[in-house]
Structures are given as structure tokens and as C-alpha cells.
Design brief:
Blueprint lengths: L1 H12 L11 E14 L8 E3 L3 E6 L4 E9 L3 E6 L2 E2 L7 E7 L6 E9 L4 E10 L14 E16 L2 E20 L3 E14 L11 E13 L5 E14 L8 E13 L5 E10 L13 E12 L5 E15 L2 E15 L1
Length: 338
């Protein structure tokens, strides 16, 4: 009952420190779309927008508006500012228009009819309430996360009876975008704060402390719903107890794959394989390494906060002849990102 109450409260007060940078945030800003200039007699009167007022979204780096329209006549090609767009079979289209800090943004739509005639219309996006909005908000270059969760640790070591235990784990991270939409840096950390439920006959308990540094490069970015981040950095992991691994460290290179849904929810997958180094071990990838993978689901809970729920697995393995050891961890966490 205590564990159930903790997990329930975790979803409301806990926070998470995974490097899930690819998120969408909704702003309380709205823009109005209207026709600005027709380049022929017909223009694009057969293109109807689903709304005239749209909320401004943010992908963590840039503000943009997602506009949905419907062509009332068949067309075979559509361009947004000379870039071809995907057209659904029913004639509907979804456009993602990146915004800047100006009060008004113009963009052009080119549509080629089935008989080869090209029609062009210029549109403008302007703030919905000019009295309250001087300019569109610029997204923060900083992102801070913190969190907690339940971790199951399973430990095996030569001449030690295998055992498992639970721990309440706290996490935290901070990142900064050096080049918007391209490069960011970050530091994250975790600590098995409260160990409990050990099955060790000798009463052993483990408490690991870990620190990760990274530089991330965005391979695939907005306006695509998919994101691919490639991260490289350095990790440090050590046991704060009398048992476990001391001073494990090494380089890390790992990708993150995420998808952002139209409602602002996102899902992230990552995987990692890193060699483990120490002053006593030698580099053998099969016996000295860290393997990790996980998935996180994120959704907005306010204009500038997101709640995340995640599952993570990691395996730490090190061999210093003639001894060896291995720790598997399984974590359920929840958290908030600012």
C-alpha cells in the first residue's frame, strides 16, 4: 500500500532527468492567418483552412504554427515557399510554418492543378491580440529537469551470493542550446538515495552515484514530427557502498529517436553501449562496459512544463582478473521538465 501511494504521488510531484530534448510546448499565443496578395485572378480560392486562428507551438528551439487546409479541387503538387509539401489522398494538407520574432510573417503557397496550371497566394500570420502581444516569445535556451522513481537492482559477483534490492532514485539534469536547432550540451546525474528490500544474506545494500556529460547534435529536426539526436560525452559511475563498482568511467556515444504528436505529446527511445574504464581494468568490450536503453513518454501540463514517465534498463559489467561483477538495473520514473 505504501509503494502504491508513492507511485501515485510520483506522477504528480516527481520529476525525470533523461535527456529528452525533443519536445513540443504549447504557448498561450495565437496568430491569425489571412490572404495577403493574389498573383492571378483565381488565386487559391479553392484552398480552405480549417481555422483562421492557430495556437503557436514550440519544438524546444523554434516557434511555429501547424496549419491544416483542404483543397476543394484536385491538385497534384503543393509548394510552401518553393518547398514541396505532402498532400493527403483526400486533398487535405498540414503545413508547419516556422515563425520569427517579427509581428507579421508572410509565406507563399503554390498549387498546381491537374491540368498543369499553377496558382499562387501569399498569406500573412499576425498576432491575434496586438494590444497584448508585442512579439512572439523566444524559447528559452535552458532546460532543467529533475525527478525520482523506483529502481530494482540485481547484483552478481564472484564469490558473492547473488542478491537484489530496491531503491528510491533521484535524478536531475540541465542543458543549454549552443546553436538552436543544431547543437546543445548537458549534464545529468542520479543517486540511489534510499535502498531497501535487499535479499543479501549478509545484509549488503547498493547505492550508485552517476554523472553524465554530453554534447548533442540534432540530425533530424522540426518541422518534421520525427527527431533524431546524436549524443557524445563522458560518464562516471561509482558505488557509495561497501559492495558494487568503484569509479567506473568512459566515453559514450548514443542516439535518441523521438516522435512528437500533433497534441504536443512525445515518445522517446534511446540505446547506449559504452566501454568501462578504471585504473585496474583493461578495455574488453564484452567484460567491461555499460549497456542501457529506455523509453519515455512526455506531455505538457502547463504552458512551460512537461510531465514525463519513463522505463529504463542498464547493465554495468566489469572484470578485474580474477574477479568480476555485474549489476542490472530496472527503473520506473516520473518527472517534470521546465
Amino acid at each position: 500500500m505504501i509503494l502504491l501511494s508513492f507511485l501515485i504521488s510520483l506522477f504528480y510531484t516527481g520529476v525525470q532527468a533523461q535527456q529528452a530534448e525533443s519536445v513540443i510546448e504549447n504557448n498561450p499565443w495565437r496568430v491569425r492567418i489571412q490572404e495577403d496578395n493574389s498573383f492571378d485572378e483565381q488565386g487559391l480560392q479553392f484552398l480552405k483552412w480549417s481555422n483562421t486562428i492557430y495556437f503557436v507551438k514550440n519544438n524546444g528551439y523554434k516557434n511555429y504554427v501547424e496549419i491544416v487546409g483542404q483543397f476543394k479541387e484536385p491538385v497534384k503538387k503543393v509548394l510552401l515557399n518553393n518547398k514541396e509539401q505532402s498532400l493527403n489522398t483526400n486533398g487535405s494538407i498540414t503545413l508547419k510554418v516556422l515563425l520569427n520574432d517579427e509581428k507579421k510573417l508572410r509565406f507563399n503557397i503554390f498549387a498546381t492543378s491537374m491540368d498543369g496550371v499553377e496558382h499562387k497566394m501569399q498569406y500573412t500570420l499576425t498576432p491575434f491580440n496586438q494590444k497584448q502581444v508585442e512579439k512572439l516569445p523566444a524559447p528559452s535556451f535552458w532546460r532543467i529537469s529533475a525527478g525520482s522513481g523506483i529502481t530494482l537492482l540485481s547484483y552478481r559477483q564472484q564469490r558473492v551470493v547473488p542478491f537484489s534490492q530496491y531503491a528510491i532514485t533521484i535524478k536531475g539534469s540541465i542543458s543549454y542550446r549552443i546553436i538552436p536547432e543544431k547543437v546543445d550540451i548537458g549534464v545529468s546525474s542520479f543517486y540511489n538515495l534510499i535502498p531497501f528490500g535487499s535479499t543479501s544474506p549478509k545484509g549488503y545494500q547498493m547505492q550508485y552515484l552517476g554523472v553524465n556529460t554530453r554534447v548533442g547534435y540534432i540530425l533530424l529536426r522540426a518541422p518534421s514530427g520525427f527527431r533524431i539526436n546524436l549524443n557524445a560525452g563522458w560518464y562516471f559511475n561509482t558505488s557509495m557502498s561497501t559492495i558494487g563498482f568503484g569509479n567506473m568511467f568512459g566515453p559514450q556515444l548514443y542516439p535518441e529517436f523521438s516522435y512528437i504528436f500533433n497534441n504536443g505529446h512525445s515518445i522517446l527511445l534511446y540505446g547506449k553501449f559504452s566501454p568501462a574504464l578504471s585504473s585496474e581494468s583493461v578495455i574488453t568490450f564484452s567484460d567491461n562496459r555499460e549497456v542501457a536503453m529506455g523509453t519515455h513518454y512526455s506531455f505538457p501540463i502547463s504552458d512551460n512544463r512537461r510531465l514525463s514517465i519513463g522505463l529504463d534498463f542498464s547493465q554495468l559489467k566489469i572484470s578485474v582478473s580474477p574477479n568480476w561483477g555485474c549489476t542490472n538495473t530496472y527503473s520506473l520514473s516520473a518527472g517534470i521538465t521546465l
